[in-house]
UniProtKB/TrEMBL annotation:
PROSITE patterns given in the database record: GP_PDE (PS51704)
GO molecular function: glycerophosphodiester phosphodiesterase activity
Upper taxonomic lineage: Eukaryota, Viridiplantae, Streptophyta, Embryophyta, Tracheophyta
Superkingdom of the source species: Eukaryota
GO biological process, any: glycerol metabolic process
Protein name: glycerophosphodiester phosphodiesterase
Presence of the UniProt keyword Hydrolase in the record: yes
InterPro entries: GDPD, GP_PDE_dom, PLC-like_Pdiesterase_TIM-brl
Organism: Digitaria exilis
């Protein structure tokens, strides 16, 4: 289906971080934007007990997307929460993200297609196991469905699955152990078995070390679309991909569901220039008729003015990355105009987003008794992060240095 690139080592080029932009100048522009002015006015008016029309202005709710369900399994992380308590990209993980968290509108899942044409959910390019002390790995797309499903826990207690191991970015291979297990699954099983309340952010996975012909991409995407069209049954769907050609091609193959281009936004450099900046991402989306961008959050924090450029291009904006597990960073993105965040600490971020969403509702509610209204307003202000212009200036200066 795909051939190895001749210069695969040059595909991802380590690079020094770019020079910091003029954050002060960008902040001046950002702080004059309507969304920030409205947010600051709302907080100030609420603290003063003002019921002005400006304070009652509403912003669209921030969407929370569960990363690989209830969060990725970062096996080497010292933080137990980041290692994950549920196996990622499983029905159990997707349902755990959906349960009881109204702010979670979507779960993100990674889709690849097996050699015999079945879309399955798995993030890594290679799947590893150990047998008789020997570790072996196979490319997921080189497996038939039955062999793929033979890894890890099995649905039938009469079967023993192959032990699952995982290769880390530093080359180490560790036992893939989590507290709550579940079996590997297909895309169709996800449609049939996941709470219908949540939508699916279907990330189309392709290997950076492989090159793909249009014919090969078309075959993969048509296999995925067949399952989506037959089993979505009204569930909201978003397609996304780091592979520029795949993102543009799936937009050509269908116009029912929105397509987002995934980008590191310049935090990592690739041989394909379309992947190396937010500006290039905007160009690609506009040229291909895509609906949005999913950016590494650090790229947005380093270049806040890019939010306005993305919105001026009539594109939606979501972000991903470890900083999205910090409630204050998520709230800042809400003020900046970001539409959604992909997160690993689903419970913590969903509760934080629900809190400041509820706070906006309380601050806009009329007809409360004087005492009851004052108490609700006080609780709302306490639950919602609030930044003055000076504090915003400090944060925008500090965060780029932090992520550097």
């Amino acid at each position: 289906m795909a051939q190895l690139k001749a210069a695969r080592a040059a595909d991802v080029i380590p690079t020094a971080m770019p020079e910091l932009p003029d954050i002060a100048a960008e902040l001046d522009a950002l702080s004059s934007a309507p969304c920030v002015r409205a947010a600051e006015a709302e907080a100030a008016a609420a603290a003063a007990g003002d019921d002005s029309e400006g304070r009652r202005r509403r912003r669209a709710p921030l969407m929370v997307i569960g990363h690989r369900g209830k969060g990725m399994n970062a096996l080497a992380s010292p933080d137990a929460g980041m290692r994950g308590d549920v196996r990622e990209n499983t029905l159990r993980s997707f349902n755990a993200a959906a349960a009881g968290y109204p702010a979670v509108g979507y779960v993100e899942l990674d889709v690849q297609v097996t050699k015999d044409g079945c879309p399955v959910i798995f993030h890594d390019n290679f799947i590893y196991t150990e047998e008789n002390g020997d570790i072996s790995g196979k490319r997921v797309t080189d497996l038939h469905l039955d062999e793929f499903l033979s890894y890890g826990p099995q649905r039938s207690q009469e079967k023993a699955g192959k032990p699952l191991l995982r290769e880390l970015k530093d080359g180490r291979i560790l036992k893939w152990e989590v507290q709550a297990e579940d079996t590997l699954c297909t895309l169709q099983e996800a449609f049939d078995g996941v709470d219908r309340r949540v939508g699916f952010n279907v990330e189309l996975k392709f290997d950076d070390d492989l090159s793909y012909t249009e014919e090969a991409l078309t075959g993969v995407l048509q296999a995925i679309l067949k399952v989506v069209f037959e089993h979505a049954d009204g569930r909201p769907i978003i397609f996304s991909s780091f592979q520029p050609d795949a993102a543009q091609l799936i937009r050509k193959l269908q116009d029912k569901y929105p397509v987002y281009f995934l980008t590191n936004g310049g935090t990592q450099t690739y041989a394909d220039p379309r992947r190396n900046s937010l500006e290039e991402a905007i160009k690609l989306c506009v040229a291909g008729g895509l609906q949005g961008i999913v950016s590494e959050v650090r790229a947005i924090l380093r270049q806040p003015s890019a939010v306005a450029k993305i919105k001026d291009a009539k594109l939606s904006l979501m972000t991903y990355g470890q900083l999205n597990n910090v409630p204050e960073v998520v709230y800042m993105q809400h003020l900046m105009g970001v539409d959604g965040v992909i997160v690993d600490l689903v419970r913590e971020i969903a509760e934080a987003v629900s809190a400041f969403s509820a706070a906006r509702e309380v601050m806009g509610t009329e007809g409360c008794g004087e005492v009851e209204g004052s108490e609700k307003k006080a609780a709302a202000v306490a639950a919602t992060p609030s930044f003055s212009a000076r504090e915003m200036s400090f944060l925008f200066r500090f965060i780029p240095e932090l992520v550097q």
